[in-house]
Amino acid sequence: MATVTPIFSLVLLLSSAILRLASGFATALDPSLMGLNLRKEKLSHFRFYWHDIASGPHPSSVTVVPPPSNASSTFFGLVNMIDNPLTLRPDAGSELVGRAQGLYSSASQEEVGLLMIMNFAFVSGKYNGSGITVLGRNPVFHKVREMPVISGCGLFRFARGYAQATTHTFDPKTGDAVVEYNVYVLHY
User: Fold this and answer.
1) The pTM of the whole model exceeds 0.85
2) Using CA atoms, how far apart are residues 65 and 83, in angstroms rounded to an integer?
3) Residue 71 contacts by C-beta under 8 Å, 6 or more apart in sequence?
4) pLDDT tens, residue by residue, 97-141
5) How far, in Å, CA of 95 to CA of 50, rounded?
6) CA atoms within 13 A of residue 29's CA, in its CB half-sphere
7) Fewer CB within 10 Å of terminal CB in the chain, N or C?
C-alpha cells in the first residue's frame, strides 16, 4: 500500500500538468491588442463585375470535375476552379480591381444551384492585398442571389456580411458570364 501512494501522487501530478498544457492553447485577448476598436467598425459597400470566362485560349474558369455522364440538366457534380477578373464596369477591358479565386460546384439536383467558395482578392487602391471570403449557395437563374461573407484578411480581418449577385450577361453557347456583385461588409 505504501508504494501505491507515491505512484498515485505521480499520476495526479502528471495529469494536472497535462490538463494545464492542454487548456493553454486558447487565451482570451483584449481586442485593442490586435488594433481592433470595437466602436469603430465600418460598413463598406463594394460594387464590381465578376467575369467567368469558360471559352477561348485563356479561360478564367476551368472544369476540374465534369458532371457524370448521366447528369441531370442541373450538371449536378460539376466542379470548376476559378481565377476570375473583378472589374469596375461590365466590359472586360474595364479597370481590374481584383480577382475571384476559388471554385464553384453544381450542388443541386432540382435547379442549377452552385456552391460558391471564393476569395475576392483585391489588387487596387487601399484594399490592395486584402480579401473577402464568400461561401454560399448561388441559384444562378434567380434574379438576385445572396451569399454570406464569412471572413476576410488584411483590412477585412474579422469581416462579415453578404454578397448579392445579379447576372449581367450570360452566353449559353460559350458558358461565359458577367455577374454584378454588390458586397456589404462589416469590418474594422
Assistant:
1) no
2) 16
3) 77, 78
4) 999 999 999 999 999 999 999 999 999 999 999 999 999 999 999
5) 12
6) 9
7) N
